[in-house]
Design a protein that fits this description.
The structure is a single chain. With 135 residues, the chain is an all-beta fold. 0% of the residues lie in helices and 53% in strands.
Length: 135
């Protein structure tokens, strides 16, 4: 068996990207699962591929487990941990969003890892992001 997970792209525009992720755990959990794959996001009007994202807002509802968000790199960098059995909305727009400062070997992706998961635990996480393009 495996956790029942969904990933939904709500908006994948020139500048912004909004994605929603859900999980109903069977106790298996997730470990460093790529949820935001920047190579799968649309290119800009000049044809340049998205190389990373800055997280503008996070909305979450979690029951039972906690969820860690990592920036994918040679050594993954913890972006944030969403607390066990919590819900909330975090807004980072005042300063342009949380940048990807993962360093060596970063590829721009965001990974999820669940902690303390057991059967029946759930999460729903929505990420609002701004896309970054490299030349």
């Amino acid at each position: 068996m495996a956790d029942a997970v969904t990933s939904q792209t709500i908006i994948d525009g020139e500048r912004n990207c909004i994605m929603k992720f859900t999980n109903v755990s069977d106790g298996t959990g997730e470990s460093a699962v790529a949820k935001v794959d920047v190579s799968a996001l649309s290119s800009n009007s000049a044809g340049t591929a998205c190389s990373e994202v800055r997280v503008l807002r996070i909305s979450h509802a979690i029951v039972g487990m906690s969820v860690q968000l990592f920036l994918n790199a040679t050594s993954n960098v913890l972006l944030m941990e969403l607390a066990e059995s919590s819900n909330g909305h975090m807004d980072f727009t005042d300063f342009g969003g949380l940048p990807n400062n993962a360093g060596s070997g970063k590829n721009g992706d965001i990974l999820f890892t669940t902690k303390g998961h057991s059967s029946g635990d759930t999460y729903s996480i929505t990420l609002e992001m701004v896309k970054v393009y490299s030349d």
